[in-house]
Design goal:
The structure holds 2 protein chains of 2 kinds. Chain A has 14 helices and 2 strands; from the N terminus they run αββααααααααααααα. By secondary structure, chain A is mainly alpha-helical. Chain A is flat. In chain B, helix 2 crosses helix 14. Classes of the chains: A mainly alpha, B mainly alpha.
Chain lengths: 295, 287
């Protein structure tokens, strides 16, 4: 009887939510749990998985030198592109927001376009081409800054930095739009009140009024940016190839793709995925806590 | 710069305004540079593509690259119209299902707050933090188990549950659809489906237009190559990548392809910029 009353009250809600939630369970929640489970096995997709306990993790952390290179690159990559792209999104959104609507529209499109243009980032391989025909090389040669062409995308000293530059170029995506929208939604009277209360310059205004007022968007943007910073991989492979010279562009994601798509060591690949997932969650928590202190 | 007078006077200095402008122009040109290069290269004749020293802008624009692209497409093993049809099919079905299922679920999450809805929403927020690669292996296993390998379904159905779309729709409904409006419709005798379709959905038009754009963008560029192996089921981006992979002699065609693939999502965004920005305004997370 109780069940019937419950169904009468909520049944329609569950019917509305059911199709999406079932798909979400099947293609997101279950895969995460499966990955965690597989990470304790040895599995090559032909024979059934064999339980190996913590062996994958032990090998990963203590015996896999290439993984340590991948971790180093990923942390460097995430520590630089993550905050920098976040600041760029915020700073550009902030500047753009003060322009006339026409300019605002044009510049929003300009900065957002690279993130939705699919493979267009591959044009950077032509701009950074390693011979004299590469546009960057040719300009630098003519200016006398370098005396022979730099092999930007195959030289281990430069390739990671070039991929960072390209990543920043295409990173003004969802969070950039969220920041623009957040800025537009701020109540003008807050600024008026701030001016009366003694806010004297744009930085004080930003810190004490603007940022606290758009904190929800800042939290959302952080999620998107951190995820992207740690997920760098497929476009790095597209730019510098796989494996990159001396593994200089090797990240945790490319390590994962190596074991998952090429070597078919699914248990080991799942351990990499699980570890990455854990690190992302911890970073998210730390950053979200930090953002609550603004203003 | 356009600011109300009191802000202009109190918090903005001319030096700061100038610095902001200089930074905008500098970063704007940096961002535009590769785009302009793509557009310029797509119209370059062969002798300008391999000129030394390389030139940034085209001098004698020509449509040769597009003609070559058309010829190459005509020579491909499977007619190019088939690839285009595949991509359109995947994009349309994937987008339609996503908008329908995500809106239904978002409506229940935002406006019914049924037991368990908080849990579902928290899971969705956490899933925003995944890199898709993290779940790639189990996803493949599941799709193989379902027997969906080498079918459109393998690409279309997972696209229905993109969590960013659901998240944005739920936030928008939370903040933009007043409960009183729905209550009024219920009192007038509308059932929940009618309330959803006739009241909620028209109110959240910017949100579902945004979902269409996001879903369209990700599916339009999808090569589907992880799941689809039959040549006549493959997508346009896959076919175009194959053409570009033909080597250095295809540099001009490559630029033409990049231009073609870029124009569609950018145009779709231009047409809907206002709606997207409005939707993103509600994207914020409460503490």
């Amino acid at each position: 009887m109780k069940l019937r009353a419950f169904w009468k009250k909520w049944g329609i809600s569950y019917l509305f939510a059911a199709p999406y939630v079932l798909l979400f369970l099947l293609f997101t929640v279950i895969p995460v749990l499966v990955a965690m489970g597989l990470s304790f096995t040895s599995y090559n997709m032909l024979q059934p998985p064999v339980w190996v306990g913590w062996a994958n993790y032990v090998k990963l952390l203590f015996a896999d030198d290439v993984f340590l290179i991948a971790v180093k690159n990923t942390l460097l990559f995430a520590a630089i592109t993550g905050p920098l792209s976040y600041m760029l999104c915020l700073l550009l959104a902030w500047f753009i927001n003060e322009l006339k609507p026409t300019w605002r529209t044009i510049l929003t499109l300009l900065f957002y376009a690279p993130s939705i243009s699919g493979n267009v980032f591959m044009i950077w391989t032509i701009l950074f081409s390693g011979d004299m025909y590469g546009w960057v090389n040719s300009v630098l040669l003519r200016l006398g800054i370098i005396y022979e062409p730099v092999r930007w995308l195959t030289n281990p000293d430069t390739l990671l930095w070039v991929t960072m530059l390209v990543t920043l170029w295409m990173s003004l995506g969802t969070s950039f739009l969220a920041f623009i929208a957040g800025l537009q939604g701020i109540d003008e009277t807050l600024y008026e009140a701030g001016a009366i209360d003694g806010v004297r310059n744009r930085w004080q205004e930003l810190w004490f009024i603007t940022l606290p007022a758009m904190r929800p968007q800042l939290l959302f943007g952080a999620i998107i940016n951190i995820t992207n910073a740690f997920a760098a991989g497929s476009h790095i492979v597209a730019l510098v190839g796989f494996p990159s010279t001396d593994y200089a562009g090797h990240t945790v994601i490319t390590h994962l793709m190596d074991y998952g798509n090429i070597r078919f060591e699914m248990g080991y690949a799942s351990a990499i995925a699980t570890l990455l997932f854990a690190v992302m969650l911890i970073t998210q928590q730390a950053v979200q806590r930090m953002l609550r202190k603004i203003g | 710069m356009q600011l109300p007078i009191y802000r202009k006077r109190v918090t903005r200095s001319p030096g700061g305004d100038l610095a902001a402008l200089v930074l905008l122009v500098a970063l704007g040109s940096f961002t535009a540079l590769p785009m302009v290069y793509v557009i310029s290269s797509a119209f370059k004749p062969l002798n300008e593509l391999f000129l030394f020293p390389p030139r940034f802008f085209v001098r004698n624009p020509t449509l040769d690259n597009f003609k070559d692209l058309a010829v190459l497409m005509g020579e491909s093993w499977v007619p190019i119209s088939r690839y285009l049809l595949n991509t359109l099919l995947i994009t349309c079905l994937g987008t339609a299902g996503h908008v329908l299922f995500a809106s239904l679920c978002a409506f229940a999450l935002a406006k019914h707050r049924f037991p368990g809805s908080r849990l579902v929403f928290n899971l969705i927020v956490i899933s925003l933090m995944f890199a898709p690669e993290v779940t790639a292996i189990p996803n493949y296993l599941i799709i193989a188990r379902l027997g969906w390998l080498d079918t459109y379904r393998a690409v279309i159905v997972p696209a229905w549950q993109s969590s960013l779309g659901l998240f944005l729709m739920k936030q928008f409904m939370d903040q933009m659809v007043p409960d009183s409006l729905l209550e009024a419709a219920r009192i007038d005798g509308a059932n929940e489906w009618q309330v959803f379709r006739k009241v909620a959905m028209p109110t959240v038009r910017p949100a579902w237009l945004t979902l269409i754009i996001l879903s369209f963008q990700s599916l339009w560029g999808n090569t589907g190559s992880n799941f689809i192996y039959s040549e006549n089921l493959k997508t346009l981006p896959y076919a175009l990548n194959q053409i570009v992979a033909g080597g250095i002699a295809r540099a001009g065609v490559g630029a033409a392809v990049a231009l073609v693939m870029m124009i569609v999502p950018v145009t779709v965004f231009i047409l809907n910029q206002r709606n997207v920005v409005q939707t993103m305004g509600t994207s914020g997370l409460k503490e």
